Amino acid sequence: MKKFLWLLLIAVILWASIIAGCILLFPRSAEADEYNAKMERLINIRRQALESTSQMKFLAGWEPMVVFGIPSDIHPARTYDFRGRYDPAVRAFTFHPRYYAALNRLTSDDPAAVESFFTREGDLRSVIDHELGHALVHDIALRAGQARWFNSLTIKTMTADERIGLTMLAEGISAYFERLTSADRQPHGYGNLPGSWSDTDWQFNTARVINEGGYWIVFPIIERFGEQGIVYLLSHQLRLPDGRADDAGLKYQRLALIILGGE
Ligand SMILES: [Zn+2]
Fold it and tell me: How close is the Cα of 117 to the center of ligand 1, in Å?
């Protein structure tokens, strides 16, 4: 009986800490609305900055919608790696609740104050620009009649290497917008592209291969051809036969530049 009471006590404590954790991580009501509104204002500011730097536009009437939380499909061991996500189906952004802390440090919407805020909060600026990159590409896809690119049903029918190729292009394009106003825009990713599936980088440095490698492939295509370059990426699959991303990436990039340049 005593053992049962102890177990009950432990269960109650566990339950109470889970609830307390949820309240702390996901504050509701007015406070949560304030964070969402702040984030939506910041997204609009960065959207204008990216539009004027890249000369690419979001569709008219576009309004950011923000939620804070960790999507349920993120593995518990990877929740810290999660920064943000854009869901084109509902046109909404999800951000990790750890960005509340940064948002607390924003005290004014004055343009100069916001600019120095973004300099201090570089991680927040880069996650907003990255997710805006995904959103902008979705709008470009809609404009170009290429919305199928993002269709999860299409993705389900793909082979593993087609799916990895698609992810490399998608993350590479978002990295382009993430770094569009950064001091160092040069891609350093060619060395991160593995030469076969047995290359350990595929196993241990997947994020770097996808992001840096993807950025290296798409950089000159978008830099030279802008929206037209992105439309090319949306309509040309990157295949990775035998996991030879270095070879496939180089050939893909060269062919794109030749076709787009009309050489
Ligand atoms: Zn991304």
Answer: 23
What does the DSSP 8-state code read for residue 220? H
pLDDT at 26 over 60: no
Rounded CA gap, 137 and 150, in Å? 10
- Residue 168 CA, ligand 1 centroid: distance in Å: 10
Per-residue pLDDT band at 190 (split at 50, 70, 90): confident
Cα 197 to middle of ligand 1, angstroms: 23
- Asked if 238 contacts 248 with a C-beta cutoff of 8 angstroms, the reply is yes
239: left (phi > 0), else alpha (psi -120 to 50), else beta?
A: beta
CA of 134 to the centre of ligand 1 (A): 7
| CA 58 to centroid of ligand 1, rounded, Å | 18
pLDDT above 90: residue 69: yes
CA dihedral 211, 98, 21, 14 (to 10 degrees): 40
Q: What is the mean pLDDT of residues 147-156?
A: 72
- Sheet of 66-68, strands arranged across: 66-68, 92-95, 84-87
Q: What's the mean pLDDT in 200-229? A: 94
The CA distance from 86 to 66, in Å, is: 9
